[in-house]
């Protein structure tokens, strides 16, 4: 029997999407620091100040000149004259000259003239104005120099950087409270299928609760998109056309289901009728994900996801995620579709896998440890219509289209999808 679809290699998908993305202008918005976790910066961020703004002690002790402690030990201490105390959080006017010391708390400002700090436990107080040092210090010991952390004018984050929790702390430390970030890509998710019901509904015979709207919308949120769950739309031309049309103000529209034989002609007809250039591709040589549709309607990308939950998930995590990263300003167009080495871990396969040549295959994999402490990859083999395989999998194994499978015990690269 003939294949009902022409299966295009993912390379063709990337070429077509890149042609569109290259002309896409990304919008920018100003955000408060508190709202910027996980957001992508839209310009290089340079430090406006030095951090720390003054040289400060990292211990409780005495600010000294290191040379005055040269050769000091418990049996041969050196003596220093106490000239005062640094007050925490205040500028000090003290100056430490040769043979002198000033008490300083952890984080306190180093007085002029001092170039090291003696820890309190390496000293003995002889009287009110004399201490002895039992330690020989090097210049710079127990202090952080002005601008040592981040210098004024230093590029802290490059355009396209995703802000992590630790980054928010660094920005706060520099007094940056507002920053320009790319707007989150707006993505609508439509589920089609007359058998579908919302999760809260009682299922009658033949009905299935909508999984894809929920798995996909949640994943989109996680990767930095602004998803809009449209819900379940009936499998008829007027409803679907109307529903897609309503979402054409979005950057991306995902339609789950109705991409295969059954009603595919209707989906294609709708997408071709709503604007130019319409459907660019139908059918991909990936497993699962064969009946994927790619369309551009004026300024909006529309992707038809196969209805099986495993297939919709694979197409979203493998292909859609890359588009989102470009639309979010996180990834350059030239890097789209290339494997990101940063999130790959290696593990030993617990069993052999056979794969069809000519289709890139994506298999969920559970990661555990074997008795020797090695990471073990347990493939969750099964049908793409099952959600449980995805639930059990921690990562995904990709089998390239020219490979016929993997061997038992082979060390494979795994990509962590959600962490
Ligand atoms: N004769 C052939 N039939 C099919 C082929 C084929 O090559 N020849 N390909 C199969 C493959 S592969 C896939 S994938 C599916 C794709 O079908 P559709 O994209 O048209 O999806 P539906 O038919 O609407 O649904 C498939 C399946 O998934 C369930 N589904 C759909 N949406 C959801 C949802 N939101 N939540 C949970 N489950 C959902 C739906 O009830 C169906 O059981 O076609 C094969 N057929
Ligand atoms: O391609 Mo279907 O998407 O294998 O399950």
TrEMBL record:
Keywords: Magnesium, Metal-binding, Molybdenum, Molybdenum cofactor biosynthesis, Transferase. One of its GO terms (cellular component) is cytosol. GO terms for molecular function: metal ion binding; molybdopterin molybdotransferase activity. Its EC number is 2.10.1.1. It comes from the Bacteria. It catalyses: adenylyl-molybdopterin + molybdate = Mo-molybdopterin + AMP + H(+). Pathway: Cofactor biosynthesis; molybdopterin biosynthesis. CDD domains: MoeA. GO terms for biological process: Mo-molybdopterin cofactor biosynthetic process. Residues 188-326 form the MoaB/Mog domain. Its cofactor is Mg(2+). Catalyzes the insertion of molybdate into adenylated molybdopterin with the concomitant release of AMP. Belongs to the MoeA family. This is Molybdopterin molybdenumtransferase. It comes from Halanaerobium hydrogeniformans. The lineage of its organism: Bacteria, Bacillati, Bacillota, Clostridia, Halanaerobiales.
């Amino acid at each position: 029997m003939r294949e009902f679809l022409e299966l295009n290699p993912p390379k063709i998908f990337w070429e077509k999407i890149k042609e569109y993305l290259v002309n896409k202008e990304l919008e920018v918005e100003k955000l408060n620091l508190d709202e910027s976790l996980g957001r992508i910066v839209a310009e290089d961020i340079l430090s406006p100040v030095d951090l720390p703004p003054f040289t400060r002690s990292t211990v409780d002790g005495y600010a000294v000149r290191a040379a005055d402690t040269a050769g000091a030990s418990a049996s041969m201490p050196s003596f220093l004259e106490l000239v005062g105390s640094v007050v925490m959080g205040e500028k000090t006017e003290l100056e430490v000259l040769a043979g002198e010391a000033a008490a300083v708390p952890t984080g306190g400002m180093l007085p002029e003239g001092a170039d090291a700090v003696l820890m309190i436990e390496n000293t003995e107080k002889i009287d009110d104005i004399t201490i002895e040092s039992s330690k020989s210090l090097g210049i710079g010991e127990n202090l952080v120099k002005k601008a040592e952390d981040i210098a004024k004018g230093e590029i802290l984050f490059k355009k396209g950087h995703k802000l992590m929790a630790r980054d928010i702390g660094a920005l706060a430390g520099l007094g940056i409270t507002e920053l320009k970030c790319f707007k989150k890509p707006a993505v609508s998710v439509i589920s089609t299928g007359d058998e579908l019901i919302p999760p809260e509904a009682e299922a009658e015979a033949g009905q299935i609760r909508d999984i894809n709207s929920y798995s996909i919308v949640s994943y989109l949120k996680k990767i930095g998109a602004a998803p809009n769950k449209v819900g379940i739309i009936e499998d008829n031309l007027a409803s679907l056309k109307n529903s897609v049309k309503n979402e054409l103000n979005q950057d991306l529209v995902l339609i789950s289901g109705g991409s295969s034989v059954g009603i595919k002609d209707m989906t294609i007809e709708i997408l071709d009728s709503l604007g130019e250039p319409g459907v660019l591709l139908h059918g991909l040589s990936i497993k699962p994900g064969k009946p994927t549709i790619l369309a551009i309607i004026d300024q909006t990308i529309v992707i038809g996801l196969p209805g099986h939950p495993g297939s919709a998930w694979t197409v979203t995590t493998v292909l859609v995620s890359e588009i989102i990263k470009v639309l979010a300003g996180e990834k350059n167009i030239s890097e789209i579709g290339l494997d990101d080495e940063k999130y790959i871990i290696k593990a030993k396969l617990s069993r052999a896998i056979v794969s069809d040549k000519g289709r890139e295959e994506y298999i969920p994999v559970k990661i555990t440890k074997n008795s020797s402490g090695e990471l073990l990859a347990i493939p969750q083999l099964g049908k793409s219509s099952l959600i449980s395989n995805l639930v059990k999998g921690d990562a995904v194994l990709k089998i390239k289209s020219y490979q016929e499978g993997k061997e038992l015990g082979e060390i494979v690269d795994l990509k962590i999808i959600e962490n």
